[in-house]
Specification:
single chain, 299 residues, mainly alpha, two-stranded antiparallel ribbon, 13 helices, 2 strands, globular
């Protein structure tokens, strides 16, 4: 028997709701698309905290919906809005976080659930950065999940008409960016994030990034530099290690996959250069010599 929203609201109000609930139906009972769209037009205002928490959890399963309007414009925007306004309590955030973790371990036949779970988790990570509520162990676990997710992405689809966004690499990068900005993370965790980004800068498959992925991947690198995670020599070595990922030098300018990899690397290096070059922070600018050297070394 499906739990009603009213009953779930009571559980949240009493603090008894837990992440163990089965994935809710989508759209949630009592919330057809028309009502959800009206809620969106109102700025997702739900005055009652219990009802808001319940609806947030109920909308989590809509991140796997094949309908891009339901998934992106309604479910994700609602969740992001409430989290950015600080309108969800830590217990609710934990329930959502664990639901999104579960989604990353479930089948994703349409290829949308995993990237949107990652994007939603970037918003969860942001709430902890803005107003800490996770324990150190929870934060450590999230870093591990985030780097594992980004490194595992093999679906490089971005936007497709009628299907909307997938954007797994960009969403994973957003998740890592929010974690990198969190002052509670230590140097080993930041190093792990930087290495995870390197895994997707130049995909071995030779896919050409055309949906802004290099810019999104650049963000956690620039913020990690701002945190002083490497010195200039360390960054120079890190950027230099990306160049061999272009592949067999004999294929230079002769192979579409090689050309795509070069395109991706150049776009990434230029994105880092632009972002770091606008900064007056000395630690952030330590990446610039390594970026310039890598660009000059390219065939």
């Amino acid at each position: 028997m499906r739990l009603s929203l009213r009953f779930l609201a009571m559980l949240f109000t009493l603090g008894l709701a837990a992440p163990a609930f089965a994935a809710p139906a989508c759209p949630p009972e009592g919330w057809p698309l028309e009502r959800l769209e009206a809620l969106r037009q109102s700025g997702f205002v739900v005055a009652d905290p219990g009802e808001r928490a319940t609806l947030a959890y109920a909308l989590s399963n809509c991140l796997a919906a094949s309908d891009p309007q339901l998934r992106d414009e309604l479910a994700y925007e609602a969740l992001s809005t409430w989290m950015r306004k600080g309108e969800l309590a830590p217990d609710t955030l934990r329930a959502l976080r664990d639901r999104f973790y579960a989604m990353l371990g479930e089948p994703d036949p349409d290829g949308v659930a995993w990237p949107f779970a990652a994007l939603a988790l970037s918003e969860v990570a942001r709430t902890d950065r803005v107003s800490p509520w996770m324990t150190p162990a929870e934060r450590t676990a999230m870093v591990l999940r985030a780097v594992t997710y980004l490194e595992s992405v093999r679906d490089y689809r971005g936007f497709e008409p009628g299907e909307g966004w997938r954007h797994g690499v960009a969403h994973g990068a957003d998740w890592l960016m929010q974690l990198t900005l969190n002052p509670a993370l230590d140097a080993p965790q930041l190093h792990r994030i930087v290495d995870a980004v390197a895994a997707q800068v130049v995909p071995a498959t030779g896919v050409a990034y055309v949906f802004g992925e290099p810019q999104r991947l650049a963000a956690p690198i620039v913020y990690a530099a701002q945190r002083g995670v490497r010195d200039e020599a360390g960054w120079t070595a890190w950027f230099a290690a990306l160049v061999p990922r272009l592949g067999d030098p004999s294929q230079a300018w002769k192979d579409p996959a090689w050309l795509a990899r070069r395109h991706d690397l150049v776009a990434f290096l230029q994105a880092v250069y632009v972002e770091a070059g606008q900064s007056t922070d000395k630690r952030t600018r330590t990446v610039i010599p390594g970026v310039v050297a890598a660009l000059k070394s390219l065939p």
